[in-house]
Design goal:
The protein is an alpha+beta fold. 51% of the residues lie in helices and 15% in strands. It is built from five helices and three strands. Strands 1-2-3 form a three-stranded antiparallel sheet, with helices on one face. Strand 2 and strand 3 form a beta hairpin. It starts with a helix and ends with a helix.
Amino acid sequence: MKSKYQSELISFLVFLTFSVSSCKNSKDNSAVNSSVDSVEVNNEIAAQPAEKETLPQNTYVKVFKSTEQGDNGFGYDIYVNDKLYIHQPHIPAVAGNNSFASESDAKKAGEFVSEKIKKNIMPPGITISELDSLGIR
């Protein structure tokens, strides 16, 4: 049989569990309520999608002749808002330090990664299967 002390202890623990749980939910709800209030106050911000604000305004690719370690291939640079964002002298996702065999391969890969950046896909990496689908390797 349970003693009176054990029953009181169990009751206290149940009460404590519910108290902590309700406090946590109260804090979570107040955070939600404060963010809702800020959206209601500034309707102009609420009308614009958040994704639009984070997308790069100006993204472009420049292909260059790779001269690293006597290499005669090509690489690419990606600029976002006129600042160098990615410098890629080698074929990404492929073992080794091989550059692109042709200027057009480097441009295709650079434009593919650039599109990922424009769509806010981060990190904007490229896989071997994506290179294969572009006809690069």
